[in-house]
Amino acid sequence: MHSGIDRLFSDPQRTGPFRFDEDVAAVFDNMIGRSVPLYDPLQRLLIRLVATYASPDALVLDMGCSSGTTLCGMAHALPHLKGRGIDASAPLIAQAQHKAQAMGVADRLQFEVGCLTSMTLPPADVMVASLVLQFLSIPARTQLLASMRQGIRSGGMGLVVEKTIPEHPGHRDHYDTIYHHMKREQGYSEIEIETKKKALAGVLVPLTRSHNEALFEAAGFRVEPFFTWMVFSGWLLSPC
Question: How many CB atoms lie under 10 A from the CB of residue 44?
Fold first, then answer.
């Protein structure tokens, strides 16, 4: 399923906090592909990590699965893998279900609307949280990580990707400048960048890499970084 072109924030009068509503769902794939550096290579890397570390018939739980790109990509590349995707956005779950049908993997994947912080996570061999924790409060992140630790089966792992901020505050403006330059290279205007930044303020709250890693370790994980690009990072989590 092809996403429309993201022009949601071209109107500077667009107000209100960012929400994963029908408007966002309609352009989500285009939005995230143009907003997250190396997004496509990152998806391929997640697939390779699962192929390398997990059994061929692993059950993957994608928490905050959005439009299903990650889980559908894994199922398409790994023919015996099964998966379950959960997201709070009904429009995005509809996109994920459509994508699974279009890619011929719907028989091995289940997508459902659900609130990760108010449900008991089903057990899985691999738990994925890609660009998800950043939208939760710190207590909610702690709670979800504890649920992940409890739900990952013996020998399993977690894969987490997050937007981050530099360790030292003096670098933050410079990193933002470089990140915004990347977004301009993807066709976003200054108005779109600034309007979306305002919409995300207080909704997406990134932490430093070390703060994230402290949360992971406190939840009972050994932490191995596998990806970093300026203000984005990825980790492989192994239950202690």
Answer: 12
pLDDT digits (tens, 9 = 90+) for 114-127: 999 999 999 999 99
9 within a domain of the structure (yes/no) = no
Q: What is the pTM of this model?
A: 0.96
Residue ranges of alpha helices (H) inside the chain are 22-35, 39-53, 69-77, 90-103, 138-151, 172-185, 190-200, 209-218
- Evaluate whether 44 touches 226 at the Cβ level (below 8 Å): no
Instruction: Go through 95-125 and write b for each residue having 16 or more CB atoms within 10 A of its CB, e for each that does not.
Output: bbbebbeebebbebbbbeebebeeeebeebb
Instruction: Compute the radius of gyration of the chain from its Cα atoms.
Output: 17
User: Is residue 12 a part of any domain in this protein?
Assistant: no
Does residue 129 fall inside a structural domain? yes
Indicate the Cα dihedral angle 158, 19, 36, 46, nearest 10°. Answer: 20
193: domain CATH number is: 3.40.50.150
Using one digit for the tens of pLDDT, what is the confidence trace for 159-199?
A: 999 999 999 999 999 999 999 999 999 999 999 999 999 99
Location of structure tokens 């028989």: 107
- Per-residue pLDDT at 12: 87
Token pair for 188: 């976003």
The amino acid sitting at 3 is: S
CB atoms within 10 A of CB 223: 17
**What is the per-residue pLDDT for 2?**
53
